Please model this.
Amino acid sequence: MKKFNIAKSRRLRSTPYSSRIESQGVTAYTIYNHMLLPAAFGSLEDLYHHLKEHVQIWDVAAERQVEISGPDSYKLVQLMTCRDLSKSKIGRCYYCPIIDDNGGMINDPVILKLKEDKWWISIADSDVILFAKGLAIGNKLNVKITEPNVNILAVQGPKSFKLMEKIFGKKITEMKFFGFDYFEFAGDKHLIARSGWSKQGGYEIYVEHTKSGLQLYDKLFDEGKEFNVKPGCPNLIERIESGLLSYGNDIDNEDNPYECGLDKYVNVNSDINFLGKDKLIQYNKNGIKKKLMGVKIESDSISITETIEIYDNNENHIGELRSGVYSPHFNKVIGIAMLKKPNWDTGTKIKININGKSVNGTVCDLPFI
Amino acid sequence: MKKFNIAKSRRLRSTPYSSRIESQGVTAYTIYNHMLLPAAFGSLEDLYHHLKEHVQIWDVAAERQVEISGPDSYKLVQLMTCRDLSKSKIGRCYYCPIIDDNGGMINDPVILKLKEDKWWISIADSDVILFAKGLAIGNKLNVKITEPNVNILAVQGPKSFKLMEKIFGKKITEMKFFGFDYFEFAGDKHLIARSGWSKQGGYEIYVEHTKSGLQLYDKLFDEGKEFNVKPGCPNLIERIESGLLSYGNDIDNEDNPYECGLDKYVNVNSDINFLGKDKLIQYNKNGIKKKLMGVKIESDSISITETIEIYDNNENHIGELRSGVYSPHFNKVIGIAMLKKPNWDTGTKIKININGKSVNGTVCDLPFI
Model:
């Protein structure tokens, strides 16, 4: 597997934490929302084991916010997602498929309701702000749409609760999953949500005040020593085992939410008005032709840089592998694949080609663990 | 200057040429429109000198196309740009600022008119397709918006004309700058434009037929031997010397076209209807408060990974440096800077900090050469 440098420039935006993570040993980056997102600090497996046992601090500033405020803000946010937000509450996070008029996925953000007329769409990797602006202009909606200077720090892992309690007090451990509230640090109020892109538990700190945010960054490492804190980043092994989907990897604009297994976030039977509703009603009625599933593959390594085609035992093309990694837990490769009907049943035998060698695999449910 | 690997995945899309350029020695990538764009093949300076003398083949598939077709396609394309396209001709390319309702830059593509009702917007690095979809949905325009499977190969450098003539015949040398036409190769018609992101002359081949496109890729290297052909990529030195602007580096959504020196592409006095027209009329009337200019800096190296602040001799903040590189031609650093009024006059003295050392510079016009 050849390695290539990333050519940095202003266009690939740095984060307030970049200089810190670079002195802490980041070794690889990916680009996400035109911004640097750390992708490795040495061994992926070491950090995987560490994440499941201790606590990590992640620079996930690349999870940008699209702020939508103003009298028509609910109308616009609801227009963009098939999830019913009519009963949504201030102080809660909502995982929402964002879809276009064909029902195709455009993003799968977490949406935070800050006020009745102020929302943050915490986006995956696509320019949702441009979609929102286009829709608002075209529909003459009275909204303000901006990308605020918010740079998220994630605190992830089972010991994140103890670490955050040490800094912010008992109250932070009482917050429910996908709730958020404001906590003071160094004279500023910081929005903190109980969320994060791992299934090991933790928090995301939406840092609006960069100066105190950087003090908080350092404080987390100081106070975290007793919990064996380390710098980290979203971990490919952990996120696939947990079945966390990645827009652009597992999902793209050619997929609808049903095909992605997001049925519970599609409210076609509600009264709400959203883009692509007619199309989704049709998909719901007529069924889908492909489906995102887990696969287990008899191999001890894989490196996915683009789609890998999937075949059945008779060399028929039956789908494509979109993400994959060696899992120490299963002692084989696990992955996320889009499989064509009727090949998505659990237990279906598959074949893929890894480095010129045909290997066997089996379809399974998501998540793996 | 620390180096970091790029963490590849399906989300950072490969191009049809990726395996070829990797065997040809690409050493660094950037990400552009969620796709791999080669950024270095070893020495930047060596390739700069080579580009100015010989011919290079560039994998610029990351210049994606947004295809807009249908009865309202002209209406939508015109709505997005302040350049008057009412008299545009089939077979021509148009450099067009795309702006939002505030007059802020969203992209600066080249737009190709393929038919009266079919356009390709050949985009810089932002998801223009989402802006176009939002506008089309909101305005109920009868258009089809897609990202076609087009992967551009650029043939750049003074010997590109001889090389292309050898393959496609005399006709291709008769094409005017920013014209395009169709040329046959290996049984397929390929759209070829006389354009490219250098000022050394050349062509861009809009490859829609991947199989014959790959044959053409190999043919260009075979036939190019006598012209000293090499694989290359947009060259930072050459593009800054030539004053070619880069969206995300030199320009962003906080800038309007006048501030970027794109006055000749802003047709506020025409009858056409475009977004942000009211705002641009105001800017035109009241003048601007900042302006993109060249700067020459007394240093023999620079590495810009984010904005570098610019001061005057009295430590007043007067602007920001957005791109920069050491130029062998000028034997100093040259760069592109956004300067606040009234500090943008040619000859204005500036100071910036490079690696902890204060260095002097001077404002100058763009392009440098």
Notes: Residues 18-63+150-240 of chain B form a domain with the Gyrase A; domain 2 fold (CATH 3.30.1360.120). Chain B has eight helices and 22 strands. Chain B has a mean pLDDT of 97.
